[in-house]
C-alpha cells in the first residue's frame, strides 16, 4: 500500500482509510489470536496501528466507536471454543422508581390471579460478568460466559484459576450448573491498574472491564495473576431440585462451598423490598466492589416456574437499578443519523467527559420533540427547556445503555445559541423527511434509494439474529457498500459476490488484509447461509415493527416463505381498506371529540370498511394475518407495505432466488398433546389468568389466537363465553371448559 502522508489526507480519505484499517486490524487480531495463519507480519501490524492513531490524532472527530486504538490486546472472541447453554442465560428487566417495583409485584399477582402476599428475595446486583459453571458428579467440567444467552465462550481453564470457584463439590446433585457473577474488588482493581501502568501495559476503565478482560484471556496464566472473585446466585441445568425456595437454593450453594452475597434478604412486601434497597444503597460505597442495583426474585420456586419467561427476561425477577451517574459538559454539535427504517435520529456530540468510569462523547437525543423539551405526549421534559448547540448539559449513563442528556443549565447558555433547526430533508439522500400523525419520529421517505437506509438494512441483514454471516459484519458491509468494484447494495448482492466477475474477485483477493484464505472463508460462510430458518429470513428483511418475536410468530403461522408471500399479496386490498378505514376513523374521532359525539364512531368505521369493495378472500387473508397472536394491524400494515413496495419486493424476490432452502420452524414440543394446535380462549378463566393460560399453551407448542376460524382446533370456553363459543360449535370445533383443557395439557 502506498500511503498518502497523513498531513495531506482529505477528510473523506481519512474516513475511508479509518474504516479500512478497522477491518484489516480486526481481521489481523482475530487471525493472530485464533492462531490460524496470521496474514500480516507483526511489523506491518504495528505500522498500520500507528497510522490509524496518526489519522485519528489529525481528525479526532472521525475516530470510530470501534477504533482499533481502543482494542489494545483486544478480546479475541474467536479464540475460545463455543458452548451452547443447556438452559438459556437471561437478562433482567429493570425498575428505576419505587412505583416500578410496586407494578412489578402487582403484575405478578395479576398474572397468577391472586392478591395474596408474595415472598421475595432481594440481593445486590453485582456489576461484573455472568458465568455458568457445570459440575458433573461433583467435578467442575465446564465454565462458560453468557455470550448471546444461547451460546457463550468456553473459559474453563480461566475459571479454574479463580479462588472462589471450587473444583470439586461434596454432596452436590449429579448434574449442577451454578451461575453467578465474576467481579473484581476495588482494592484489587486499583492494584492491578498500577501494576499494569508500571509495566507499560493496558489499564482498565473500571473493575467490570478489568474483570471481563481478565476472564477472557486466552492465556490462563494471565487470568491466574488477576484477582477475580465469584458470587453464586442462580442456576441452569440440574439433575434434582436445590430446594423449594430461592433462599434454600442459595443456602445450598453456601453449604457446597460457594460465596453467596451476605446482603441477600427475604422480604414480604414491596415496602420491605424498597427498604432493603435503601439500606444497600447506603452501604454501597463501603462494600468494596461495584454493584449497580438490587435484584428482587420471587422466593417460591414453584411460582417462579409458573411465571416463566418473556422472550429474554424472567417474569419472576427484576433489577431495581440505582440512579445513574451524571456529569456536566458542552454540547458541541447535533448530528442527524438515518436508521434502517429511515428514522432521523439526532445525536449529541459532547466534549468528552468521564461518567461513572467511562468516557462519554456522544449521547442520544431521541427525536426532535426531545430537543425542544417535549415528550411523546407533548408534556414538558426538563421543564420544557430546549437544547442548543453550545449549551452546558448534564449527561447520565444508566447501566449499559447509551448515554442520555438529563438537563441543561440555561444560565450558561451563550447569547449566540439558537434553537436547533431540525431538518425536514434527509441529510443523506435529500428526500423529504416527514412525520406521520402520532409518530414522534421524522422519517426519510427515500426507502432503498437512501444510502443510509440501504446500508443500515444491510447491517441488520447480516446481524447476529438475522443471517449472521461469519466474516461479514457491519464494518465489512460499510466497505462493500462503497466498493466501486464489488459493491453490495442489496442482500442478494451478497450471494452473487463470488460469481460476479473474475477480475473483481482477483482484486478482492489481493486487497490489504484479504488473503486467499479469508476470501475463501467468506465465500464458504456465505454459501452456508443459503439454507436459512424461515423466522430468521423474515426478521432479516428489516421491516419496521417486525422484530425477532414477530418474525417467529409469522414463521410459525405461515410455515413457508411462499405461503407468507401469497397471503400478503392476497390480503393487500384489505390492508389498504383497513388503513383508509383507520384514517376515516381518526378524522372522525377528531371531529367527534370536538363535537362530543364519540358514540357515532363505530358505525362510521364499519361503513368505511364496507364502502371499500374488498374481495372476500382478501378480507379473510387479512383477518388471518392480523389475527395471528402478537401480530395485529400495525405490524400487518407495515409488512404489507414492504411487500407491496416495488423496490423492496424486487430485493426480496431476488434474495429468495439466491437461497436454496428455507427451513420451516420446528414444532416446539412435539410430545405435547396440543403442539401445533390453534387454541382460542374465551370467557372467564377461573384457575389461571389469560396471560398465564396463553404463555403455558405456547410453551407447549400451541398457537393462541384471538378469533375463531376454520383453522381453530380447540376453543376453551369459560363462563360468560359468547359468540366465539357459538361460532366454534357451528364450525364443529372442539370446545373444552377450563378443567377439560387442564386435563388435556397435563395428560
Ligand atoms: S439473576 C434469570 N442475580 O445481571 C435471571 N443476576 O441484567 C438470572 N447479575 O445477566 C440473573 N447480579 O449477569 C441475577 N444477584 C443477581 C445478579 C445478576 C448481577 C447480572 C447477571 C445478569 C444481569 C442481568
Please give a quick description of this structure.
By secondary structure, this protein is α+β, with helices and mostly antiparallel strands.
What helical percentage do the residues reach?
40-55%
| Tally of individual helices | 26
The whole-angstrom Rg is: 28 Å
Q: Looking at this structure, what is the CATH superfamily of the largest domain? A: DNA ligase/mRNA capping enzyme
CATH topology value of the largest domain: D-amino Acid Aminotransferase, Chain A, domain 1
Which terms summarize this structure?
26 helices, DNA polymerase, domain 1, 40% helix, 5 domains, globular, D-amino Acid Aminotransferase, Chain A, domain 1, binds 2-(butylsulfanyl)adenosine, five-stranded mixed beta sheet, five-stranded antiparallel beta sheet, 747 residues, 18% strand, OB fold (Dihydrolipoamide Acetyltransferase, E2P), alpha+beta
Structure, described:
This protein has 747 residues and is of the alpha+beta class. It folds into five domains: 6-71 and 325-412, Nucleic acid-binding proteins (OB fold (Dihydrolipoamide Acetyltransferase, E2P), Beta Barrel); 83-321, D-amino Acid Aminotransferase, Chain A, domain 1; 447-529, 5' to 3' exonuclease, C-terminal subdomain (DNA polymerase, domain 1), CATH 1.10.150; 535-663, no CATH class; 678-746, 3-Layer(aba) Sandwich (Rossmann fold), CATH 3.40.50.10190. 40% of the residues lie in helices and 18% in strands. The protein has 26 helices and 24 strands. The strands form seven sheets. The protein has a five-stranded mixed β-sheet. Strands 14-13-12-15-16 form a five-stranded antiparallel β-sheet. A hairpin with a 2-residue loop joins strand 13 and strand 14 (358-364). The radius of gyration is 28 Å and the shape is globular. 32% of the residues are buried. 2-(butylsulfanyl)adenosine binds next to strand 3, strand 8 and strand 11.
Amino acid at each position: 500500500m502506498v500511503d498518502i502522508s497523513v498531513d495531506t489526507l482529505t477528510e473523506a480519505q481519512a474516513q475511508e482509510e479509518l474504516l479500512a484499517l478497522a477491518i484489516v486490524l480486526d481481521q489481523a487480531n482475530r487471525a493472530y489470536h485464533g492462531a490460524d495463519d496470521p496474514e500480516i507480519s507483526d511489523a506491518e501490524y504495528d505500522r498500520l496501528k500507528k497510522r490509524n492513531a496518526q489519522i485519528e490524532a489529525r481528525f479526532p472527530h472521525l475516530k470510530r466507536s470501534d477504533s482499533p486504538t481502543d482494542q489494545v490486546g483486544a478480546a479475541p472472541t474467536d479464540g475460545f471454543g463455543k458452548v451452547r447453554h443447556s438452559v438459556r442465560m437471561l437478562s433482567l428487566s429493570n425498575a428505576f422508581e419505587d412505583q416500578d417495583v410496586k407494578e412489578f409485584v402487582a403484575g405478578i399477582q395479576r398474572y397468577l390471579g391472586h392478591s395474596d402476599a408474595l415472598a421475595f428475595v432481594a440481593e445486590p446486583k453485582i456489576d461484573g460478568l455472568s458465568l455458568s459453571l457445570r459440575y458433573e458428579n461433583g467435578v467442575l467440567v465446564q465454565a462458560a460466559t453468557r455470550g448471546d444467552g444461547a451460546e457463550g465462550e468456553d473459559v474453563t481453564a480461566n475459571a479454574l484459576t479463580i479462588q472462589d470457584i471450587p473444583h470439586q463439590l461434596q454432596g452436590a446433585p449429579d448434574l449442577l450448573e451454578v451461575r453467578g457473577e465474576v467481579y473484581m474488588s476495588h482494592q484489587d482493581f486499583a492494584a492491578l491498574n498500577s501494576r499494569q501502568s508500571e509495566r507499560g501495559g493496558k489499564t482498565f476503565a473500571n473493575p467490570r472491564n478489568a474483570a471481563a478482560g481478565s476472564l477472557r484471556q486466552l492465556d490462563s496464566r494471565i487470568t491466574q495473576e488477576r484477582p477475580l472473585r465469584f458470587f453464586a446466585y442462580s442456576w441452569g441445568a440440574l439433575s434434582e431440585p436445590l430446594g423449594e425456595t430461592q433462599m434454600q437454593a442459595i443456602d445450598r450453594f453456601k453449604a457446597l462451598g460457594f460465596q453467596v452475597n451476605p446482603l441477600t434478604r427475604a422480604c414480604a412486601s414491596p415496602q420491605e423490598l424498597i427498604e432493603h434497597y435503601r439500606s444497600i444503597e447506603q452501604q454501597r460505597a463501603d462494600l468494596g466492589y461495584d454493584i449497580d442495583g438490587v435484584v428482587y426474585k420471587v422466593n417460591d420456586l414453584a411460582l417462579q416456574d409458573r411465571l416463566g419467561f418473556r422472550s429474554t427476561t424472567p417474569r419472576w425477577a427484576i433489577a431495581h437499578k440505582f440512579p445513574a451517574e451524571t456529569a456536566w459538559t458542552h454540547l458541541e454539535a447535533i448530528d442527524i443519523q438515518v436508521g434502517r427504517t429511515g428514522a432521523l435520529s439526532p445525536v449529541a456530540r459532547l466534549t468528552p467527559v468521564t461518567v461513572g468510569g467511562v468516557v462519554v462523547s456522544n449521547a442520544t437525543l431521541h427525536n426532535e420533540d426531545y430537543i425542544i423539551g417535549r415528550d411523546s405526549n407533548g408534556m414538558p421534559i426538563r421543564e420544557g427547556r430546549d437544547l442548543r448547540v453550545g449549551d452546558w448539559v448534564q449527561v447520565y449513563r444508566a447501566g449499559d445503555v447509551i448515554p442520555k442528556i438529563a438537563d441543561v443549565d440555561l444560565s450558561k447558555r451563550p447569547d449566540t445559541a439558537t434553537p436547533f433547526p431540525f431538518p425536514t430533508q434527509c441529510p443523506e439522500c435529500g428526500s423529504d423527511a416527514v412525520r406521520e400523525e402520532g409518530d414522534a419520529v421524522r422519517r426519510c421517505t427515500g426507502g432503498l434509494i437512501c444510502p443510509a437506509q440501504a446500508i443500515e438494512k444491510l447491517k441488520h441483514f447480516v446481524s447476529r439474529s438475522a443471517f449472521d454471516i461469519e466474516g461479514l459484519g457491519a464494518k465489512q458491509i460499510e466497505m462493500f457498500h462503497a466498493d466501486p468494484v464489488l459493491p453490495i447494495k442489496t442482500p442478494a448482492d451478497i450471494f452473487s459476490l463470488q460469481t460476479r466477475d473474475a477480475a473483481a474477485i482477483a482484486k478482492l483477493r489481493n486487497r490489504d488484509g484479504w488473503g486467499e484464505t479469508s476470501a475463501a472463508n467468506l465465500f464458504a460462510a456465505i454459501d452456508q447461509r443459503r439454507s436459512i430458518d424461515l423466522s430468521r429470513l423474515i426478521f432479516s428483511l428489516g421491516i419496521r415493527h417486525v422484530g425477532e418475536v414477530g418474525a417467529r410468530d409469522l414463521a410459525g403461522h405461515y410455515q413457508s416463505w411462499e405461503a407468507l408471500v401469497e397471503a400478503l399479496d392476497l390480503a393487500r386490498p384489505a390492508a389498504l381498506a383497513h388503513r383508509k378505514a383507520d384514517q376515516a376513523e381518526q378524522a372522525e374521532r377528531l371531529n367527534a371529540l370536538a363535537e362530543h359525539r364519540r358514540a357515532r364512531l363505530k358505525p362510521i368505521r364499519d361503513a368505511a370498511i364496507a364502502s371499500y369493495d374488498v374481495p372476500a378472500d382478501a378480507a379473510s387473508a387479512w383477518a388471518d394475518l392480523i389475527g395471528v397472536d402478537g401480530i395485529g394491524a400495525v405490524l400487518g400494515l407495515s409488512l404489507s407495505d414492504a411487500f407491496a413496495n416495488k423496490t423492496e419486493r424486487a430485493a426480496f424476490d431476488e434474495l429468495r432466488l439466491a437461497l436454496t432452502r428455507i427451513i420451516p420452524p420446528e414444532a416446539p414440543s412435539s410430545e405435547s398433546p396440543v403442539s401445533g394446535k390453534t387454541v382460542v380462549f374465551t370467557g372467564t378463566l377461573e384457575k389461571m389468568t389469560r396471560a398465564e393460560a396463553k404463555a403455558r399453551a405456547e410453551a407447549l407448542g400451541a398457537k393462541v389466537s384471538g378469533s375463531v376460524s376454520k383453522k381453530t382446533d380447540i376453543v376453551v370456553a369459560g363462563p360468560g363465553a359468547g359468540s366465539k363459543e357459538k361460532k366454534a360449535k357451528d364450525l364443529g370445533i372442539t370446545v373444552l371448559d377450563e378443567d377439560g383443557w387442564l386435563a388435556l395439557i397435563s395428560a
